[in-house]
Amino acid sequence: MKPPKFDAKNWKPVPRVQEWPVYQPEALPDNWHKITEYYEKRVSEYNWQFYFDGTTLIIYDHKDSINRFDGKPIRHIHQYEFPIQGARWFVDNIKRFFLKPGEPGALPAHKFSLTEYCGDEKPSISRLVDCYARTPGYCFKNHSRCEHPDQDLCQCFDMSDEALFKEGGYLALFTDIAERYERGELEEKP
Q1: Fewest CB within 10 A of the end CB: N or C in the chain?
Q2: C-alpha dihedral over 110, 113, 114, 120, to 10 degrees?
Q3: Looking at per-residue confidence, does 174 or 16 come out higher?
Q4: Are 144 and 12 a contacting pair, CB within 8 Å?
Q5: Coil/strand/helix, residue 63
């Protein structure tokens, strides 16, 4: 099956929400409530902090290191924003990748991604052949928000199969966030 020919005259980009600044760890907004954290060893180490500001799930990590080219200090910040309902949307829709074509809710056999609206934003899940560390995985994207600092790309939070599906992995984490939100418990400490 050939993909449809691109129709430039009828193409419309996904509307983007107002871009957020990249926050320094010393100056995170007061309304960000930390709801959980998740340590992950990829090519390097990440200590992902998950925040909730009343409407948005924020995934955040920072680390200070030395630039290997000039020896000067450098700060790396990763910041992803999703509508809080995106946690439930992700949990409910990742399952669709494992249904056989033709089953109710299954993706068509030729599809490797799913994009839908969730509230006023447009998240997606994509199957990745080469995730970080050269392993297969999935990407949780928000097409409505620009990547930091590259504003041409959408925000993409990658997860290897192992990190997603292991006991206590990202699937369990997003399920917990969704359930806590639905019970009105996200303002509480984890």
Answers
A1: N
A2: -150
A3: 174
A4: no
A5: strand
